[in-house]
Amino acid sequence: MGQYVHFANSEYSSAMHAKYEEILIATKANFFCTRYFAWIDIGYFRKEYMSPFEIWIPTNFNSSLVAYTEMKDREPELDPKRIVYTNAIWLAGGFFIGELNVMTRLAEQYMRTVEMMIDNIR
Question: Distance between CA atoms of 94 and 19, rounded to whole angstroms?
Answer without folding.
Answer: 10
